[in-house]
Amino acid sequence: MFPLLQRCCFHMPFKLQKSTSPRLLLHGNNKTTWSSVGLCLQRDACHLSRSPSLNPASVYATKLQAFHTSLPFLKKKTPKESETKDPGVWQRSMKSLKDSPKPALYLSLAGLIPFASVPLSMAVQGTYYPELAFAQITYGAVTVSFLGGMRWGFALPENSPAKPDWLNLANSTIPPLLAWQALLFKDITHGAIMLVMALGIALHYDVSLLPTYPRWFKVLRVVGTLVMVLSLLATAVLKTLLENQLSDSRNKCQNIK
To answer: How would residue 36 be classed by pLDDT, with cut points 50, 70 and 90?
Structure first.
């Protein structure tokens, strides 16, 4: 009897189910069909519950597991450790700067003293010294030439990532040429501006354009370039301000006389 009911209930054609279901739902005329369908479902459930592979304990455990299981997209995503502890650019740069070799770090910082001392001494004394300004420009030209020639030393070894091609070797000669041009200017302001351009080009080569140096050296180059550029611009600004103050004081003295 059960196989016959099962074939009648669950293996009837789809067209027959589609044609009879609206009538059953809307009018409720064929109560015998409804009762047979319910009887089939009830017997089917009893047959499944009596199956040897599904005992009551396993069915209960499956229901609990289904009840306590949430959808994947509703689960709260825990942030990765790299996302929660991702340091900023400043922290990474400072860490790279601390990881640099001590001789390179200390010598580079010591090489910035002649740049920073010139505008600092002028600002403290309130007087513009042309000799000190020209000495700063000369030291800046030597530094720019050193930064340009350093590319040759980096490209010549056999295992170097930078090849001794036209791009590396020819670009390394551009900063010395700009430094030489800076020494030809009679005005200190023009020489300072030319050195600022040469320092910017050399930094662009070392950091982004050509095959790069280690990370600690790139951070050291950025810090050193900022100090040199600010020192040269400070000297140019102090030259303009202090010379204007000196000319104003001379004019007042002449007016008094």
So the answer is: low
